[in-house]
Amino acid sequence: MTGKYDVVIIGGGPAGLTAGLYTSRAMMKSLLIEKGIPGGQMATTYRIENYPGFDEGISGLELSQRMERQARKFGLEFSSGRVEEIRLDDNEKVLITDDGLEIRTKALIIATGVEPKSLKVDGEERFRGRGVSYCATCDGAFFRDKKIAVIGGGDSALEEALFLTRFAEEIFIIHRRDKLRATRILQERAFEESKIKFIWDSFVEKIEGDDTVNKIVIRNLKNDKTEFFSVSGVFIYIGSNSNTEFLRGLVNLDSNGFIITDEKMATSVPGIYAAGDVRTKTLKQIATAVGDGAIAAKSAEKYIEDK
Ligand code: NAP
Fold first, then answer.
1. What is the DSSP secondary-structure string of 96-165?
2. Out of 6, 111, 255, 293, which could bridge 28 as a Cys pair, Cβ 3.0 to 4.6 Å?
3. Ligand 1 center from residue 147 Cα (angstroms)
4. Residue 3, pLDDT score
């Protein structure tokens, strides 16, 4: 089966949905391919407080659904699947998906975002989905009145730990330094929350349990002592990796695997653009992702017109 488009967007987070809104509204035949649910990481965020226009905050799922509806209204098509290969054929980009679809497009926008990093410690894989989680919104309710650990010291760790206070009895935030990376407002909220305790200068060495997690082994980096913590859940928020493996060297990446673009979101290959968290940038936020998406869409439109 084949399809032909003016613009194909890979990834349905805020960057991809915005790009699709702009290209379809500009009357370009546009398709968005998403392997999960529209909204991506945004859809799994409990509450978003810093996206302009929603002064009371908005749930990530609702914002995702609104962005999807808005893009569909202007004719953006959606396809569920995973792009496995991209070939260049003269001026066309040819995409092959995991279910054997061949899709041809004049311009391509990559907005595949990021995936949570794993700790790579003993027990993490074994207990994934049985106490080890990377999504508090998805799994938090399983830990009602339980003790849990949150690993990391960035915005995600603190924001999700604060969300988890509505379920858990006690939350240990385990951070490898004695200073947090998270923004001041989140730090202040976490310090004020009586259910949250910080374990500084420490890292998780091992996750243990029977059927599900029941304890973790922590090593203090300053005195090298180890300690057991009885917890039922471990939420890991230690940053993310780019989703660029499927590109297999097609466009230039930085040393961390993120796509290098110019200010027009152009990659090293003419007609291929990147938007959102998957590209090298300083501030990874929904507000900046939608900006990237709009610019990438406009650049793709200009590229097609010039051809
Ligand atoms: P991040 O900012 O990269 O923070 C990752 C945290 O995990 C850091 O504290 C880091 O420690 C720690 N860490 C990294 N590798 C580790 C390891 N192997 N073992 C133990 N700890 C490790 O990632 P993030 O919190 O996911 O945020 C990603 C981006 O999204 C950021 O730009 C953030 O501002 C943004 N974000 C924004 C919001 C918001 O605006 N509300 C919410 C979520 C995310 P060190 O500090 O020692 O490096």
1. EETT--EEEEEEEEE---EEEPP---BTTTTTBTTTEES-HHHHGGGGTT-EEEEE-SSHHHHHHHHHHT
2. 6
3. 22
4. 87
The reply to whether ligand 1 has any atom less than 6 angstroms from the CB of 116 is no
238 closest CA partner among 114, 64, 68: 114
β-bridge pairing 114-116 and 132-133: unpaired
Q: Would you tell me the crossing angle of helices 14-25 and 286-306 to the nearest 10 degrees?
A: 40
Which of these, 278, 246, 248, 243, lies nearest to 260 by C-alpha position? 278
pLDDT tens for 46-68 read: 889 899 999 999 999 999 999 99
CA torsion, points 104, 105, 109, 114, in degrees to nearest 10?
-10
Q: Is 212 in the pocket of ligand 1 (CB under 6 A)?
A: no
Q: Which of 122, 138, 178, 262 is catalytic?
A: 138
Q: Is 50 in the pocket of ligand 1 (CB under 6 A)?
A: yes
What percent of the chain has a predicted confidence (pLDDT) above 90?
A: 94
| pLDDT at position 1 | 54
Q: How many alpha carbons fall within 13 Å on the CB side of residue 205?
A: 13
Q: How far is Cα 173 from Cα 163, in angstroms, rounded to an integer? A: 13
Residue 8: other Cβ atoms inside 10 A: 29
Q: What whole-number distance in Å separates Cα of residue 297 and Cα of residue 28? A: 10
